[in-house]
Design brief:
Shape: globular
Structural class: alpha+beta
Strand content: 15-25%
Oligomer: single chain
CATH topology: Aminopeptidase
Number of helices: 5
Strand order of the largest sheet: 1-2-3-4
CATH class: Alpha Beta
Helix content: 40-55%
CATH superfamily: Gcn5-related N-acetyltransferase (GNAT)
């Protein structure tokens, strides 16, 4: 998949991406959830748990690369987005928009496009 003006290149994840995806997922999850979820859930979400889950979900994952490094990812099952995370230093750069746009482009239905346009 080709990039765009933001310098982001998208491609299907491969098993070798699991560790980078897990790190991005773990960091992003911590940023968004710690302090807002029960302690039991936070203690269950270890770095290792994200690595296990990332390795199991490689087939559902598209990664965003910037300058040859994984900067973010999206996991989609059927027509449902399950996860979208981008490294903190790539937030606001268009990486997440590139990732989410792949879902909209894959579903050409008018309903999907209308929902995407309403989302922003």
């Amino acid at each position: 998949m080709d990039g765009n003006d933001s310098g982001v290149t998208l491609r299907p994840a491969v098993p070798g991406d699991a560790a980078e995806v897990a790190e991005i997922w773990y960091r992003g999850w911590c940023d968004g959830h710690l302090g807002f979820v029960p302690d039991e859930l936070a203690s269950a979400r270890t770095e290792g748990s994200f690595l296990t889950r990332a390795a199991e979900r490689v087939g559902d994952t598209t990664v965003a690369e910037v300058q040859g490094r994984v900067a973010g990812f999206i996991m989609v099952v059927d027509d449902e987005v399950k996860q979208v995370y981008v490294l903190a230093d790539h937030r606001g750069t268009g990486a997440s928009a590139c990732l989410t746009n792949t879902v909209v482009l894959a579903d050409s239905s008018a309903d999907c496009k209308n929902r995407a346009n309403a989302f922003g």
